[in-house]
Design goal:
This protein is α+β, with helices and mostly antiparallel strands. Helices cover 23% and strands 40% of the residues. It has a single domain (4-111), classed as Hotdog Thioesterase (Thiol Ester Dehydrase, Chain A). Strands 1-4-3-2-5 form a five-stranded antiparallel sheet. The longest helix has 18 residues, at 4-21. The two termini are 19 Å apart.
Length: 112
């Protein structure tokens, strides 16, 4: 069965691909995941091909919130959401740079 841990790893892969695609790869080393939740709706075996769709749900001053859906064998297998916080030089939450914030707000639905 597809585990929550597998969902987290897939989410990270999709998130980093999204960040690179909008020229925000610098955020990869400046964010920390502070929340992750998933609901498994139907079995998906670990070997099954899966597709994850992620959406930037909300961009706060220092946070990014995503929603996701995982499809397996043509049906929704899992749904969930997660949140990240941008860290400054001191390791404390800090505002996301304006140009990256603007890019995140225009991403739309991403598939991976």
């Amino acid at each position: 069965m597809l585990s929550t841990t597998a969902c987290v790893l897939l989410a990270e892969e999709c998130e980093f691909a999204l960040l690179r695609s909008i020229g925000a790869s610098e955020l990869e080393h400046r964010i920390i995941r502070v929340h992750f939740e998933t609901q498994h709706l139907r079995p998906a075996l670990y070997e099954d091909p899966v597709t994850m769709h992620i959406t930037v749900n909300r961009v706060g001053t220092s946070s990014i919130h995503y929603d996701f859906t995982i499809f397996s064998r043509g049906a929704v297998a899992s749904t969930g959401r997660w949140g990240d916080v941008h860290l400054g030089e001191t390791g404390r939450p800090s505002p996301i740079p304006a140009h990256l914030r603007a890019a995140l707000l225009t991403t739309g639905d991403q598939h991976g």
